[in-house]
C-alpha cells in the first residue's frame, strides 16, 4: 500500500480538510503518478456537497490531473518513470462493450469507473481523486502530456478541454461554420479557443456585458448580450452550432431560434431542471438539441496533442491546497478566470 496525503470532504456540510489514506499496491498494468497539478471542476463541488446525491465519504475530488510517473507495474509498456502524464475523468471501463472497443469509454455500457467516488471494478473500493499527492491508475487510462506547455494550464484540458473538443470534432466544426458559445466559464472559454482554432466564426452569447472584452481576448469574433432582445432578433436563424455550457436553468427555446436550418444545439452543461422544448421549435427548421460527455481515451490524447501543437491551454489561477474551500465559494460566485488549479507542492 502507498501512504497518501490529500484533502477530503467527510460529509456534505463539512469543508474539505487534510486527509491521509492508502492507495492500493501496484497491479501488473498500473502506473503510479506523483501529482503536480490538479484542476478544480464545478463537479468536484457538486460531489463533495452531495448535490448530485450518491457521494461516498470520505470523498477526495479531482479529475484534472497532471503529474510525473514514479513507478510502473511489471506488465506496463506504455510509460516509464519520469514521464509527464495526465489522468482525466475516467480510470477504468469494461473495455469489452461496443463503445469501449471504439474508444468511447465515456459511454461504457457497464458504466465507466470515475476517477473519484466510484467503485473500483476489481476490489470495489471507492476511488479517490487528484486532491492528493499521488494516484495509481491502469496504464490504459493514463495519457501522455507534452512538456511544451505550462502544466498548470494543461490540467483543466483533461475535463474542460475534452468536454468541448469532443462534440466539435464529432460534428466536424470548421471553416465556414458559425458557432455560438453560450456561457463564458471554465467550459465556455475553452469552447471559444478551440472553435476559433478550428476556423469557425465564433460568437460569445452572455448575460453579462462585462464579458465582452474577455471573449474578444480569447478569440471570439463577435459578442451578443442575451438580455438585449434586439441583438437576439438580429441573430435569428444565424448559427450552425451552439455550444451550450450553462449548468443553471435557462430558456433553451430562446437559443434554439438562433439556429439555422439543420443547426445543432450541443449541451455540455447539466442544469438541475429538465429542458422544456416544444417539438415545433425543432421541426420547422430541422434543428436538433444534443448532448455530449467528455471524450474517450483516444480522443483525449488527440486533444492533448492538438493543444500542444497549437499552444492552447486553459486560463488558470493557481492556488494552494489549503485555499480549496475559499476557491469553492469563489467558484459559486463566478469569481474565477477561468479555472482554479491546485499546485500540489503546497499540500
A few lines on this structure:
The chain is an alpha/beta fold and 347 residues long. The chain contains 11 helices and 17 strands.
Give the topology.
Layout: E1 2-8, E2 17-23, E3 30-40, H1 42-48, E4 65-72, E5 84-87, E6 90-92, H2 98-101, E7 113-114, E8 134-138, E9 143-144, H3 151-154, H4 160-170, E10 178-182, H5 186-197, E11 201-206, H6 212-218, E12 222-225, H7 229-233, E13 239-244, H8 252-256, E14 259-267, H9 280-283, E15 288-291, H10 297-310, E16 316-320, H11 324-332, E17 339-343
Parallel strand pairs: 10-11, 10-13, 11-12, 13-14, 14-15, 16-17
Antiparallel strand pairs: 1-2, 3-4, 3-8, 3-17, 4-5, 5-9, 6-7
Could you describe the 3D structure shown?
The protein has 347 residues and is of the alpha/beta class. It folds into two domains: 191 residues, Alpha-Beta Complex (Quinone Oxidoreductase, Chain A, domain 1); 131 residues, NAD(P)-binding Rossmann-like Domain (Rossmann fold). Helix content is 24%, strand content 27%. It has eleven helices and 17 strands. Strands 3, 4, 5, 8, 9, 16 and 17 form a seven-stranded mixed beta sheet that branches. Helix 4 packs across helix 5 and helix 4 crosses helix 10. It starts with a strand and ends with a strand. The mean pLDDT is 97.
Entry keywords:
347 residues, alpha/beta, Quinone Oxidoreductase, Chain A, domain 1, Rossmann fold, 2 domains, seven-stranded mixed β-sheet, six-stranded parallel β-sheet, 17 strands, 24% helix, 27% strand, globular
Amino acid at each position: 500500500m502507498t501512504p497518501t496525503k490529500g484533502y477530503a470532504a467527510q460529509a456534505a456540510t463539512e469543508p474539505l480538510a487534510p486527509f491521509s489514506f492508502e492507495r492500493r499496491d501496484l497491479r501488473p498494468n498500473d502506473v503510479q503518478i506523483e501529482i503536480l497539478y490538479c484542476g478544480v471542476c464545478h463537479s468536484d463541488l457538486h460531489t463533495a456537497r452531495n448535490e448530485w446525491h450518491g457521494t461516498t465519504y470520505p470523498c477526495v475530488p479531482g479529475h484534472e490531473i497532471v503529474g510525473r510517473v514514479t513507478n510502473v507495474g511489471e506488465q506496463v509498456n506504455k510509460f516509464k518513470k519520469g514521464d509527464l502524464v495526465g489522468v482525466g475523468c475516467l480510470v477504468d471501463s469494461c473495455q469489452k462493450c461496443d463503445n469501449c472497443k471504439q474508444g468511447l469509454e465515456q459511454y461504457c455500457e457497464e458504466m465507466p469507473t470515475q476517477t473519484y467516488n466510484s467503485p473500483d471494478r476489481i476490489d470495489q473500493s471507492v476511488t479517490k481523486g487528484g486532491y492528493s499527492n499521488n494516484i495509481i491508475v491502469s496504464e490504459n487510462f493514463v495519457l501522455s502530456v507534452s512538456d511544451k506547455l505550462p502544466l498548470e494550464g494543461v490540467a483543466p484540458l483533461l475535463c474542460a478541454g475534452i468536454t468541448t473538443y469532443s462534440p466539435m470534432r464529432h460534428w466536424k466544426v470548421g471553416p465556414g461554420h458559425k458557432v455560438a458559445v453560450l456561457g463564458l466559464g471554465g467550459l465556455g472559454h475553452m469552447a471559444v479557443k478551440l472553435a476559433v482554432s478550428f476556423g469557425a466564426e465564433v460568437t460569445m452569447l452572455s448575460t453579462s456585458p462585462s464579458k465582452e472584452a474577455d471573449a474578444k481576448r480569447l478569440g471570439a469574433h463577435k459578442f451578443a448580450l442575451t438580455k438585449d432582445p434586439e441583438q437576439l432578433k438580429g441573430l435569428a436563424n444565424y448559427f450552425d452550432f451552439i455550444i451550450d455550457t450553462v449548468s443553471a436553468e435557462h430558456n433553451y427555446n430562446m437559443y434554439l431560434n438562433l439556429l439555422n436550418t439543420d443547426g445543432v444545439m450541443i449541451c455540455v452543461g447539466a442544469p438541475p431542471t429538465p429542458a422544456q422544448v416544444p417539438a415545433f421549435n425543432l421541426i420547422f427548421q430541422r434543428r436538433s438539441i444534443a448532448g455530449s460527455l467528455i471524450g474517450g481515451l483516444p480522443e483525449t490524447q488527440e486533444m492533448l496533442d492538438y493543444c500542444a501543437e497549437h499552444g492552447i491551454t486553459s486560463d488558470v489561477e493557481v492556488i494552494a491546497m489549503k485555499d480549496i474551500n475559499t476557491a469553492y465559494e469563489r467558484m459559486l460566485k463566478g469569481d474565477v478566470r477561468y479555472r482554479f488549479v491546485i499546485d500540489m507542492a503546497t499540500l
